[in-house]
Amino acid sequence: MKAEIHDDMQSARPTDVDGAPQERMPIVIAGHVDHGKSTIIGRLLADTGSLPQGKLEQVRASCERNARPFEYAFLLDALKDEQSQGITIDSARVFFKSDRRHYIIIDAPGHIEFLKNMVTGAARAEAGLLVIDAQEGVQENSRRHGYMMSMLGIRQIAVLVNKMDLVAFDRRVFDDIVTEYSAFLQQIDIRPTYFVPVSGREGDNIAHAGSRMPWYEGSSVLQALDAFQAPHLPVGGAFRMAVQGVYKFTQHGDDRRIVAGTVQSGTVNVGDEVVFYPSGKKSHVQSVEAFSRPSQHQAMAGQATGFTLSEQIFVSRGEVVALASEPHPKVTSLIRTNLFWLGKDPLVKNRDYTLKLGTARVHMRLDQVHRVIDASDLSAHADAQHLNRHDVADCTLKLKRAIAFDLAEDIAATSRFVVVDGYEIRGGGIIREALQDQQAWVREKVLLRNYKWEPSIIAPEHRAEKYNQRSTLLLITGAQEADRKTVAKGLEARLFDDGRVVYFLGIGNVLYGVDADIERTFENRKEHLRRLGEIANLMLDAGVILVVTAAELTQEELQLIRTSVGSNRIEVVWVGENVTTDLAYDVLLSEHESIEEQVFRLKDHLQEAGIIYRPW
Asked: Are residues 171 and 218 in the same domain?
């Protein structure tokens, strides 16, 4: 039995000697601090001959030089250069090979400070090992780890009752822990496949059966690992691929635009009609591409791939691709979730955070907490206004814009998300329900429009190259008394003189033209804005920079327009210091500035945003 140790999961897929791909299973190991996870992994590696040559002797010699007793945990920590910490603080990834398969063991730290590492590690795992100290018994973190594995959909679990040597290999101690922890896990619908009494320090029941527990006739840890069933990739499910990026090639006459990503489920074939969500744009797969390999006819779950489209459409990172013939993902900006919070500061309402799901990133806020569950004892209480550290909650999140996803019970991979505060992951969870948001009525019309859309043979990037600009809707708003039109027309004139394709559209042009058939009342304002969005969508498709003025736009109204146009094609300007709505703007123009200064600032902003390209 041979093995290799790596610190990067993005290694090449293992193969047999004949070159055929071998099965690979990621497994997370978790447990309360000092319950012996690292010792178990170190012993497993040592007893299976899985360490780099000379590593065991090197660590033993290091311990002797420093007058420290040798521990098998040092083997794992040495690989991550963490011995001086006295505690494992990162999710070390250990690769080794049994007679049956390749393994990736993700060491998820048990210390409460590093619980979030366990979450990010467990999110990749297909099975789990939960370690419990025979002397200390089931701890609060033991229950938390079990609950989080349940939330992440990990159902194959072996519980390792470690340090049996410290309780004289007493069967009653083991049986009591089995009874207590099984009762807890049953409440969260987890039934462990194995309970294994082990001694990481002495090696009992790690890679081989021990002689000091004759009362135990079950599997060793290694046998339990080999008995886990590797789940089949969901190639038969609905096709899903999150768009990682769109890459264009220009050398040697190569004009391909490849939509790239990893297939989460299902299969796609050349000729299939695909739909991108949340935009609803459609096209057909012209070719399936692979790096340094000939073009394929098919891509399936688990593969990083790319494909070209027969009809050129504009799609962006974060969209989810589905087959037109299969059930489509949910699309909304209001989601009900099971969420665990790990940040030091509480998760509070009226504050922006970032939600990451697949390749999508979107600002979000906590909208409502339905109930908070104590993961350590499963008690629940309602009416909470925020989430404290280690809380698990049933809550509703409000996103700044709609995203595409699936529910946890349908496709797990496209339902899991993390919440980022600043630059750190502070929480994560799964989506349980798609709620109807205020833009749902508009989104239905937009999805149908985009599905029926007849694209021009002129690709959007070709217009951008020809006009030396990126089509954009520039919304200029402000209080009723603010002079919006003067600055808008001044900007139009300046851009036109620069050779840009630009057009000014006052809201009155819409009200008394396209909207002449509906009354100009407050009740009809949303429909007016929806129609404005449709006009803008047409002009943006033609490559134009469209400058629109409207009084006192709100954030909800902006979301309505974004639903029609797309959030990445709108820039928002507020004129004057008197901000009278909740609108999130990109530029604030001071009323004390001259028109020339305001126009200059707007042009500079368009250049900084890459909307009008700077001259070479």
From this structure: yes
φ, ψ of residue 438 to 5 degrees: the values are: -75, -15
Nearest to 319 by CA among 419, 375, 264, 241: 241
Instruction: Describe the crossing of helices 484-497 and 595-608 by its angle, rounded to 10 degrees.
Output: 60
Q: Where are the alpha helices (H) located in 123-187, listed in sequence order?
A: 140-151, 171-187
Token digits of residue 534: 């449709």
The residue among 435 and 35 whose pLDDT is bigger is 435
Tens digit of each residue's pLDDT (9 = 90 or more) over 231-254: 677 778 899 999 999 887 766 556
First to last CA, the chain: 60
| Res 514: pLDDT | 87
Residue whose pair of structure tokens reads 């992440």 in the numeric block: 152
For 69-87, give the DSSP string.
Answer: ---THHHHHHHTT-GGGSS
Please say which residue of 268, 302, 323 terminates a domain.
323
pLDDT for the residue 253: 58
Torsion of CA 45, 51, 57, 58, to 10 degrees: -120
Triad 454, 282, 362: Cα angle to 5°: 120
Give a yes or no: residue 456 inside a domain: no
For residue 508, pLDDT beyond 90: no
Integer Cα distance of 188 and 147 in angstroms: 7
Give the CA radius of gyration of the chain: 29
Quick: pLDDT tens for 148-168: 888 777 889 999 999 999 999
Secondary structure, 3-state, 26-56:
EEEEEECCCCCHHHHHHHHHHHCCCCCCCHH
Instruction: Give the single-character DSSP code of 594.
Output: -
Question: ∠ CA(348), CA(31), CA(144), 5° rounding?
Answer: 35
Q: How confident is the model over 11-24, as pLDDT tens digits?
A: 334 445 444 446 77
Per-residue confidence (pLDDT) for residue 373, from 0 to 100: 83
Neighbours of 279 (CB within 10 A): 20
Q: Are residues 344 and 319 in the same domain?
A: no
What is the amino acid identity at position 515?
A: D
* Structural domains in the chain (count): 4
Tell me which residue range forms the domain holding 395: 330-441
Same structural domain for residues 490 and 591?
yes
User: pLDDT tens digit string along 398-440?
Assistant: 999 999 999 988 988 899 898 999 888 888 888 999 999 999 9
Q: Over the range 214-252, which residues count as b (16 or more CB within 10 Å of their CB) and which as e? A: eebeebbbbbbbeebeeeebbeebbbbbbbbebeeeeee
The pLDDT value recorded for residue 119 is: 59
**Tokens describing residue 288:** 């399936």
**At 472, which helix (H) or strand (E)?**
strand 472-478
3-state secondary structure of 314: coil
Confidence of residue 294 (pLDDT cuts 50, 70, 90): confident
Do residues 408 and 352 share a domain? yes
Tell me, yes or no, whether 266 lies in a domain. Answer: yes
* Short-list 502, 488, 489, CA closest to 544: 502
Residue type, 363: H
The residue behind tokens 């600055």 is 487
pTM for the full predicted model: 0.76
Regarding whether 170 and 66 lie in a shared domain, the answer is yes
Say if residue 574 is exposed, middle or buried (CB neighbours under 10 Å; 0-12, 13-18, 19+): buried
Residue 493 lies in a domain: yes
